[in-house]
C-alpha cells in the first residue's frame, strides 16, 4: 500500500509506553490517516470519529465496545469502529502493522 502526494508528520503518536506507535499522514483534501505498529500486549482505544483499521501485516484480536465476540484480523483484512466508541485490541506475538482511516 502506498500513498502519493501526502504530508507526513514526523512527530510520532506514542501510546502505552511505546507499545503502540503511529505517524499521521495528511492528504491535500484535508483528510488524514495514521500508519502504525502494535507490539505484543492488550490495549483499549476510544474513538472520537469513526475509524477503519486496515491490517497490513501481522495478526490481532479485536473486540468492539458493546460486542461480546472476539474477532481475529490478519493482513489484508479490516474492521470498522463507530464514532464515540472504542475497541480492545490484542497482539499475541510479533508486530501488527495497520493503517487507520478516519471516516466522516
H-E order: EEEEEEEEEEE
Biggest sheet architecture = 7 strands, antiparallel
What number of structural domains do the residues give? 1
The value of Rg in angstroms is: 13 Å
Helical content band: under 10%
Would you tell me the overall average pLDDT? 96
Assign an overall shape: globular
Please identify which CATH superfamily we are dealing with.
Jelly Rolls
Number of strands: 11
In the predicted model, the low-confidence regions spanning at least 5 consecutive residues are none
Please count the helical segments. 0
Could you name the CATH class?
Answer: Mainly Beta
Cα distance, first to last residue? 22 Å
Q: Judging by the overall fold, what is the CATH architecture?
A: Sandwich
Estimated structural class: mainly beta
Write the layout of secondary structure elements.
Elements: E1 6-8, E2 13-15, E3 20-27, E4 32-38, E5 41-46, E6 50-57, E7 59-64, E8 71-74, E9 78-81, E10 86-91, E11 96-103
Antiparallel strand pairs: 1-3, 2-3, 3-4, 4-11, 5-10, 6-9, 6-11, 7-8, 7-10
Describe this structure in words.
The chain is mainly β and 104 residues long. It has one domain (6-103): Jelly Rolls (Sandwich), CATH 2.60.120. It has strands at residues 6-8, 13-15, 20-27, 32-38, 41-46, 50-57, 59-64, 71-74, 78-81, 86-91, 96-103. Strands 1, 2, 3, 4, 6, 9 and 11 form a seven-stranded antiparallel beta sheet that branches. Strands 5-10-7-8 form a four-stranded antiparallel beta sheet, with no helix packed on it. It is globular, with a radius of gyration of 13 Å.
In short:
The chain has 104 residues and is an all-beta fold.
Amino acid at each position: 500500500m502506498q500513498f502519493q502526494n501526502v504530508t507526513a508528520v514526523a512527530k510520532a503518536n506514542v501510546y502505552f509506553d511505546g507499545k503502540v506507535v503511529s505517524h499521521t499522514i495528511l492528504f491535500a483534501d484535508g483528510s488524514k490517516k495514521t500508519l502504525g505498529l502494535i507490539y505484543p500486549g492488550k490495549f483499549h482505544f476510544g474513538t472520537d470519529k469513526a475509524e477503519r483499521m486496515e491490517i497490513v501485516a501481522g495478526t490481532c484480536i479485536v473486540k468492539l465496545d458493546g460486542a461480546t465476540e472476539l474477532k481475529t484480523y490478519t493482513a489484508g483484512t479490516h474492521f470498522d469502529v463507530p464514532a464515540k466508541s472504542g475497541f480492545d485490541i490484542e497482539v499475541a506475538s510479533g508486530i501488527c502493522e495497520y493503517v487507520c482511516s478516519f471516516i466522516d
